[in-house]
Amino acid sequence: MPAKPRPLAAATPADWKAIEQAATAELARRTRLAHQQIVGLLGTHGHLLSDAQRRALGKRLQRSGK
């Protein structure tokens, strides 16, 4: 069973800064994990995409700055 999230009870600016840093680190971790999963799926199933789907994916990645 997953742990319940702790309530936000920041009392000082330093507490809020620590919460912000933890949230930023968690977002970066999840982004890396999602990227790994997407690359894995494309490596496994990318050959099933049509040429149009590949072009659309390429355009989307360029727009996102990747």
Keywords:
66 residues, mainly alpha, 0% strand, Repressor
How would you describe what is shown here?
The mean pLDDT is about 90. The chain has helices at about 15-45, 50-65. The protein has two helices and no strands. The protein is elongated and about 55 Å long. The protein has a domain at about 30-65. This is Repressor. It comes from Xanthomonas sp. 10-10.
Question: Can you describe this structure in just a few lines?
Answer:
This is Repressor. With 66 residues, this protein is mainly alpha-helical.
- Count of alpha and pi helical runs: 2
Low-confidence stretches: none
The SSE string, one letter per element, is HH
Rg, Å, rounded: 19 Å
What's the total count of β strands? 0
Largest sheet: none
Inertia-based shape: elongated
Overall average residue pLDDT: 88
Helix content: 55-70%
Distance between the termini: 36 Å
Judged by helices, strands and strand pairing, the structural class is: mainly alpha
Q: Give the percentage of residues in beta strands.
A: under 5%
Protein name: Repressor
Organism: Xanthomonas sp. 10-10
Topology readout:
Elements: H1 13-45, H2 51-63
